[in-house]
Amino acid sequence: MGCxxxxxxxxxxxxxTCDCQLPPDYMQLFLEKRTRKVNRFVAxxxxxxxxxKANEIRSNKAIYLPEKFNATKAWxxxxxxxxxxxxGFFFLVFWLLSCRYFKSQKVVFVYATIGFIxxxxxxxxxSIVVATNLLPGIVSTHFMLSFLSILxxxxxxxxxxxxELQTHEQKNNPxxxxxxxxxxxxxxxxxxxxxxxxxxxxxxxxxxxxxxxWSAMGMSFAAHRYLPLVFLIxxxxxxxxxxxxxxxxxxxxxxxxxxILTQIVLGAINIxxxxxxxxxxxxxxxxxxxxxxxxxxxIIKPIGLE
Length: 306
Known about the structure:
By secondary structure, the protein is mostly helical. It has a domain at 167-306. 70% of the residues lie in helices and 1% in strands. It contains 10 helices and 2 strands; from the N terminus they run αααααααββααα. The chain has helices at 26-47, 51-58, 71-98, 106-131, 138-160, 168-171, 175-203, 218-242, 247-272, 277-299, and strands spanning 207-208, 211-212. The protein has a two-stranded antiparallel ribbon with strand order 1-2. Helix 5 (138-160) runs antiparallel to helix 7 (175-203) and helix 7 (175-203) runs antiparallel to helix 10 (277-299). It is globular.
């Protein structure tokens, strides 16, 4: 919520550096604009029959809280939007190039189109995230939807010109699919946990005796906390099972195990020191990278691992 409006930031194309550049009643002004946008979104949900979600949004008091200007948060959000626009332009070029293969390699065009639509849909959803003041559920959807663009882009490129051919061990190995599902499940549970952190922060219950109040965060956080241990044990088991028979997969699995272990350590730091900014960002970035890497290794031969 560094910028309470979208696509501009406090009504400007570049964020201000201090609130002295804003009108005195800027908080109320942008709250009214956001409220009108929320009302339009709620009306759309009601027209398509999602009355329960519409009522949930309408009755959420956090949506109607004004946002005070914070230069750091505003510029972080602005840079995020710049990368989003840049990704959009690159993806548009990518999709236009894929149109050349509509007849010769239609599957390339189809995957590129799905990825492009997912990107556009997520850009729109980003504006809804801002309008609804980080409403739980919508934030998680926004985060998870971003994976579709990345994964379908990888598939489209690989179908057009394979990075490298798969080895026999990858084509006939069910462990990749299990690890892929586990990684996505852990990431999804992590997004739910992040929403619970926001809720606890607003209610003043985020900390208990100097550490993160994880006991108040419910089953989704408990699963997100302990499932990586199961994932690590499973990964080590696959490594032991395949290290002599399938060395390529064993090396890739070893890297995955190291990444999972790093995530567990970062998670422990976040709990015990109540979400230090640096480790929190690293935890999110590495967590998002894991399923993408597994997906990459699943469809192609791992480069540089032989």
